[in-house]
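Deliverable D5.2: sample structural annotation.
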Amino acid sequence: MTLTKRYDFVLLFDVKDGNPNGDPDAGNLPRMDAETGHGLMTDVSLKRKVRNFIGMAQTEADGAAKSGFDIYIREKGVLERNHRTAYKAIGAEDELVDDGKKGRKGSADSVERARQWMCGNFFDVRTFGAVMSTGVNCGQVRGPVQMTFARSIEPIVALEHSITRMAVASEAESEKQGGDNRTMGRKHTVPYGLYRSHGFVSSFLAKQTGFSGDDLELFFKALESMFEHDRSAARGEMSTRGLYVFEHESELGNAHAHSLFDRLKVQPTEPGSPARSFDAYAVTFDGQTLAVGQSLDAATGVKLTRRC
């Protein structure tokens, strides 16, 4: 099913006693806005969780990805291997012959056919886009789905905890410890934070990559459930708390995204008191609270639906 409408969406999720997105350049501290103290989570981190969910949900019994739902940006993946597979699939293997040049540019026709093959076989390429011009050239794709950094509704508190490991990794380390075998470490958590991210779906770009209505539905399901299958001790409890989708009647859109987003308010119910659960906030659109599955007319030609 071809997309013929524009979509914008708001994603709300929270973290409790965990680190949603540590910064490796800051000792893995939770990412924060240095001026306001609000917590941040990168768009890349959110897309990683979507990719992991799709890779898990769209897998055959033998462990192989279902046709059209492979993942291009995999953990520990080698991207050029996928490029070479694309050239072999389109019958352009002769352009992969090593002639001593750095990289393989490929003919314009082969690059375009390889780009189309990548879009058809990799869900994240036709969804988020990709730069595939390094090494074996498969072109570049501008994805129809884009997401912003997530930002916490209120400033967060980043806590640091001392932890003890009761074992060591090697005999040499044991001798150095004098047989005590206890080592100290650090763990960073956020007591509680409710985060908000905005997203955009372009039907024009969807036509270029082959991103379909079924793909969009699968993407929304990933946003709803991705934290349920991404548990770890470091991340504590993370949950999707709301997915609000604005569906426009036209491809160009019937209202500005920012004007719609501004009307969706997330406010503390007891300002000044530290929040420790989602119940500490009220989510309203023009003063109205939406139940899961409820829809309303947000503007002329725009329908707002709360999916979860």
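Annotation notes: The chain is about 25% helix and 30% strand. The chain has two domains: 1-42+149-156+190-308, 61-140.
The annotation will be released with the project's public dataset once the embargo ends.
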